[in-house]
Design goal:
This protein is an alpha+beta fold and about 525 residues long. About 20% of the residues lie in helices and about 30% in strands. The chain has 10 helices and 25 strands. Helix 2 packs antiparallel against helix 3 (about 235-245). The chain is globular. The N and C termini lie far apart (about 75 Å). About 40% of the residues are buried.
Length: about 525
Amino acid sequence: MKKPKIVIFALIAIVFATPLFSQTIINPGFEAGVGDSTFAVGWHTNQAETKASLELTADGQNQVTKISPSDNWTKSIRQEFDLNIEQFIKYRLSAKMKTEDMTGERSKAYLFASLYDDQDFQVNYANNRDQNLKNIPEWTDFAIEFVAPPETTRLRIGGALVGKDSGTVWFDDFELALLPFEPDDIQLSEAARNYLQEVREVMQEKALHKEKLNFEHIHQLMQIEASGAKTVEDTYSAISKGLRLLNDHHSSFLSADRIKEILGVDTVDIEKLKEDPLSHIEPEKLDSLKAAIDYSSGRIIHSKTGYIRVPSFTSLYYEGQFLFADSLQQLIKSLDQPDLRGWIVDLRGNPGGANAPMITGIGPLLDDKNTYSYVDSQGQPVSEYHYVEGGYKIAGSEEEDTLIHFVKTSYQTQKLNLPVAVLLNDQTASAAEAVTAAFLGQANVKTFGSSTAGATTGNEAIFLNDGALLNITTSYLADRNKTIYKQGIDPDIEVEFNRKVGEDLESDPVVLKAVEWMKEYN
């Protein structure tokens, strides 16, 4: 009897792998051995650093493909196919899987499929990550189903493994099959159907890439995903999927319950927020709001350097934004001293939130030319913002400029031109990238670390009829020099960092590089 060939993924840090198709899948069971330029005939790894190879194990064992530990965050195998279709087509991707030692809380193994059009936009995707496949000691069959819309020109399939702790997953016998499909056979309640239509209309009006997207097909895919929905809540996962198909990598959906969690209160007046997203909180809810805020922190390090960690901040209430911004300026004031060498603003690990309180809070370290803006897909200005003494200014005509005051009394540092090092990493995102943009081009500023997450886009918050929120990406971020950032911000000085942010600032290599620059600057 033929011994099956399998794919093995060894995960020591964080690893991904990818499930494969049959029918047109090349070498679906890995029988064909090693290819000329890949680890197995027909297969590719996700990154050059991924160490994949075929091995023949001892008697009684299977031939395997092994991905060894390496420094890259994600490891996967994949295969791609060109498609030429004229209608919606349904596929089923299946494979055998088993796992071992997947003990990490975030460790997951799964199959996946990604579909793209001729613009390289993702037009659909599927995976079985939600099955939380961890304890599978014996070979087990798994499958995912997905629909390819007519504009699909390329299909990528594979297997993935992700997680912090060590673990192993095996894949074998990939197969891709066509399934019968009737696009019109979708069962939705009237409420669910109307809700999805409302979402489509918002997407079509606001989306960053609206000129390039097929909203009829995105709408149809959301309906397919939500088929069987009886309530509005039953459509939420389908909406999240539809937002991903906008291909801006930033749009998101928040239910009314999730908004309450973010605001840090038990109840929320959605109608009031619809009228004014920056509204006032009722006095009796203020204590719970204060307790929910993650305030900025800092101290003097390396004798004469003021270190400030700016965390994410998401409250929509004026009082929350005031508390965050004012406390940050007070922190700067408490660290300022006559013999200070410079400032470090640590934005590593900050996933974003609200721009205004972060920029207002860090405002004393910005010069008077700190304007940043958002532009549409054609590069035309949409909005412009900057910090001025005491608050955050939304620019318009002279009569329309809006100043939002977020601090009791603005603080001005004792020395105005001390060097400022801004620390970045791949988890610096969204509003934290906007804070970075406000600093870019300032003569006494240099950025350190690694490239940011790439959520360098502006979002518009739109409330739906049930109080849920569509956070639709509408624009790109630009700095004072009108440089547009579409895929994140690269640091001036790249520094490798492979541990927890804030763990040991005295030996942190990014901090050390920043301090070294400050000494030279002075």
